[in-house]
């Protein structure tokens, strides 16, 4: 998977999708696994990130378990724009900005 993600073809596809030039950008890969009962902290993406892509590998997920990627409208944790279930085959691309 990492070989594919590092390929010029994939980089070109990201550029086409996002309308960003990624020519002089480096790639950083982070892998996380959360166990039952663990919570990720509310955070913003680093200011140096041009884009963030998240891949999910859960074969099943029940919304009642929590654990969704929660996109907020603003800094208020109750101001929910969208919850995204972490399901296998799903991927999210986020373009960080000064407001994200």
From TrEMBL:
Pfam families: 2OG-FeII_Oxy_4
The Prolyl 3,4-dihydroxylase TPA1/OFD1 N-terminal domain, residue ranges: 30-92
InterPro entries referenced in this protein's UniProt entry, alphabetically: TPA1/OFD1_N
Protein name: Prolyl 3,4-dihydroxylase TPA1/OFD1 N-terminal domain-containing protein
Native organism: Dendronalium phyllosphericum CENA369
